[in-house]
Design goal:
Layout: H1 2-8, H2 13-20, E1 28-35, E2 46-51, H3 62-75, E3 79-82, H4 93-104, E4 110-113, H5 117-121, H6 124-133, E5 137-138, E6 142-145, E7 153-157, H7 161-167, H8 170-182, E8 189-193, H9 200-203, E9 210-213, E10 222-223, E11 227-228, H10 234-238, E12 242-246, E13 249-253, E14 271-278
Parallel strand pairs: 1-14, 2-3, 3-4, 4-5, 7-8, 8-9, 9-13
Antiparallel strand pairs: 2-14, 6-7, 10-11, 12-13
Helix pairs in contact: 4-6
């Protein structure tokens, strides 16, 4: 399948056409403020910039990536969180170098990432190495406590729900998530990062206050009113994009940035997000 698509999109003509559509290379910056019980008063607000589904490859115009990274750079965030699917049709050396250069140029002092299904279908070790060299901590069923003055916050990075369940035993996957949460059990505020909203069952009722994810592309091809025709994710069909409150958990699903199988978007505009975490008034 990927070989056929690689031949079909040879020369990057699809990305070139996308960039010629008026307004199609704009990337929205979605901003939210989240006041979390347990955050000590007097701590400075924590700004987390989130981007997912960059899909460097023949169907994503460089202009879209330029716009997305300009928004991330202007956000002046304390933490950069990346939600996976960095490439489409292979983690070539050129794509990994471009990803490194773009991420390295962002000023956030803490950079965290998870991997997505397209990354695991490519060369995940090459992407993980590239991100690490760019100063990013890649979390696969791992957790990290943020440095002061935000050391009351932990980030838990979940394995990709689609590919992990095929690659490892389901029990082993659950044990990995359990261990990641146990390592930060004493941290009052927990933020989960996962490629897909299908990671929701892993964190439901486990003290996580915010789940950041992507994968859905907002349907990628949607009807007027941002109504997706199809979303490749059971939980994504419930929450195809945007912010949702579910059982005391805030879930944010990004539409992502780039393109994959279909080299265009309709009524599913690219976005990146910034969450400002504060204490209760």
């Amino acid at each position: 399948m990927e070989r056929v698509l690689g031949l079909l999109y040879t020369g990057g003509w699809a990305a070139w056409l996308w960039a010629r559509v008026p307004g199609a290379t704009r990337v929205a910056l979605i901003e939210h403020t989240l006041a979390i019980p347990g955050r000590e008063k007097g701590r400075p607000p924590l700004r987390i910039a989130f981007a997912s589904d960059l899909h460097l490859g023949p169907t994503t115009p460089p202009e879209v990536l330029d716009a997305a990274f300009a928004q991330l750079r202007s956000a002046n965030a304390d933490v950069l969180a990346l939600g996976g699917d960095y490439v489409f049709l292979g983690a070539t050396k050129d794509r990994v170098k471009e990803l490194q250069a773009r991420v390295s140029a962002l000023p956030s002092p803490v950079k965290l990432a998870v991997l997505g299904n397209h990354d695991f279908w490519a060369r995940p070790e090459r992407l993980e190495d590239g991100l690490t060299e760019a100063g990013v901590r890649v979390l696969v069923n791992e957790s990290i406590r943020l440095p002061p003055p935000h050391d009351d916050v932990a980030v838990i990075g979940l394995d990709d729900p689609l590919t992990s369940y095929r690659a490892v035993d389901r029990i082993a996957q659950q044990e990995g998530v359990d261990a990641a949460l146990a390592r930060v059990a004493d941290v009052p505020i927990k933020i989960a990062l996962c490629h897909s909203p299908d990671g929701y069952p892993e964190v439901k009722g486990r003290g996580v206050q915010l789940l950041l994810c992507g994968h859905t592309h907002g349907g990628h091809i949607a009807l007027p009113g941002y109504r997706p025709l199809w979303v490749p994710s059971p939980h994504g069909r419930l929450w195809p994009f945007g912010r949702h409150q579910v059982d005391g958990l805030t879930i944010f699903v990004s539409r992502g940035v780039g393109g994959s199988l279909v080299p265009m978007r309709t009524y599913a505009p690219p976005d990146v997000a910034v969450f400002t975490i504060t204490s209760l008034p």
